[in-house]
Design brief:
Layout: H1 2-12, H2 21-24, H3 28-32, H4 41-50, E1 114-116, E2 124-127, E3 133-134, E4 157-158, E5 164-165, E6 172-174, H5 176-185, H6 205-220, E7 224-227, H7 250-261, E8 274-276, H8 280-283, H9 292-297, E9 305-306, E10 312-318, E11 323-329, H10 372-393, E12 398-402
Parallel strand pairs: 1-10, 2-7, 7-8, 8-9, 11-12
Antiparallel strand pairs: 3-4, 5-6, 10-11
Helix pairs in contact: 1-4
């Protein structure tokens, strides 16, 4: 912790009385259980381990001496567990109730069948590439804040500006840097007109879609949601893979609260299952070792998020209407797992953006940058016979495949 010693000592001394301290140390009550004014040296070390407000960070939490032990968790002594899905019987140890020991432990397994009663018209909602950026998070591990433009550091989802092209993607009208400039000026000069920035639309796309989603849900009451991934931008959960499967990290809770739980609620949506897969951005976008396994873990901390493995199946039975559906959820992200030297901005296996030591071996994921393309290719190769066999055996009226990247049959 030599890298954070000086700043932690300053914060616990005079820094906490600075006029700006309330903003810097806004997460103190959640993480330590005390205000920044009440925090001691160990409380500030805990803060700089869990959610450091600045460039300095602690690699380890305090061993003792914090206000609300145990000092190693990031929830004021009330660690958020994913050890048993809400609503499950305490004796139930199946896939629908308890997490696996490792992130791929349940791959290919059957999530418990959903039985839906009623003779009314039934509705399914589908959504994808919906996740915003959590600009209000102070990420751990020396990571940068998830902010793309000057005013993106605020609660709720902010936008990752993309380059803009014509419909056939043959002519680029506006690159990323130009569009960021439009966000910074909110469409005013020197914003490039070809970017087509529209205030009130471009600055809140996820919320506009979510509001339409919620309005429609209130009218038709969908039974469940199919989610095809890219749940968190830019690169999924801001935590290195390998967390215990029965625990939820501070970044995971923060990002789910800001991007999912705080957005998709209301009549027709609250408590409805979200059957989900990982998108390439959930693995890390241009790296592979972000907290994709924490999205799987969240399945057992939530009563509606469902992602027990990178690939799995489930069934839905419409008991009073005499039909059923078998769903097959696949991970198709091998498409963005290229040789490490190729296309670094769109390659999960990029040597440029992954650290030389990057590894998700502890989570059953790729063990190195060089092994990354082959690992994703193998994951896809094992899914093909799996889904082919099960679809051939299916007696359901409908068989539906859910995946992130569209695939050729």
């Amino acid at each position: 912790n030599a890298g954070c010693k000086e700043v932690v000592e300053w914060a616990a001394g005079g820094g906490k009385w600075d006029s700006a301290a309330g903003g810097w140390y806004k997460s103190m009550p959640t993480i330590t259980g005390v205000s920044h004014e009440q925090g001691n040296l160990q409380d500030f070390q805990r803060l700089y381990f869990c959610s450091p407000p600045g460039d300095s960070f602690c690699g380890l939490p305090p061993c003792a001496g914090c206000s609300n032990p145990p000092c190693g968790d990031c929830f004021a002594g009330n660690q958020l567990f994913a050890s048993h899905r809400p609503g499950c019987d305490g004796n139930d140890k199946g896939v629908g109730c308890v997490p696996p020991k490792t992130a791929l432990g349940y791959k290919g397994q059957h999530w418990p069948t959903t039985v839906i009663h009623g003779s009314q018209e039934m509705h399914i909602f589908a959504i994808g590439d919906w996740g915003g950026m959590d600009g209000s998070l102070d990420p751990p591990e020396g990571r940068k804040t998830i902010v793309a433009y000057d005013w993106g550091r605020r609660p709720g989802p902010s936008v990752f500006p993309r380059s803009r092209w014509n419909k056939k993607h043959t002519v680029q009208f506006c690159d990323h840097k130009q569009l960021v400039e439009c966000f910074n000026t909110r469409g005013q000069a020197p914003c490039t007109p070809e970017c087509g920035y529209v205030a009130g639309v471009d600055d809140q796309p996820q919320l506009l879609v979510a509001n339409a989603f919620k309005a429609r849900a209130a009218l038709v009451d969908p039974q469940y949601i199919l989610n095809v991934g890219d749940n968190f931008y830019w690169g999924g959960i801001e935590k290195t893979c390998g967390s215990p499967m029965d625990q939820i990290s501070y970044p995971t809770k923060h990002q789910f609260d800001q991007i999912f739980e705080g957005v998709y609620q209301g009549a027709g949506l609250t408590n409805k299952p979200w059957f989900s897969v990982l998108g390439n951005h959930d693995w890390g976008g241009f790296k592979f070792d972000n907290g994709w396994d924490q999205q799987i873990s969240y399945t057992w901390a939530s009563n509606r998020w469902v992602m027990p493995a990178p690939y799995y199946k489930t069934s839905v039975v419409y008991a009073d209407q005499d039909f059923d559906v078998d769903y097959f959820f696949l991970d198709s992200n091998f498409i963005d797992a290229m040789p490490p030297e190729e296309d670094p901005n769109h390659n999960m296996c990029s040597r440029k953006n992954n650290k030389p030591s990057a590894s998700c071996a502890a989570a059953d994921g790729p063990e190195s940058v060089d092994a990354c393309p082959g690992w994703f290719a193998s994951l896809w190769a094992e899914q093909k016979p799996w889904v082919t066999k099960l679809m051939g055996q299916s007696k359901a009226n409908w068989q539906i495949v859910v995946t992130h990247f569209p695939l050729q049959t």
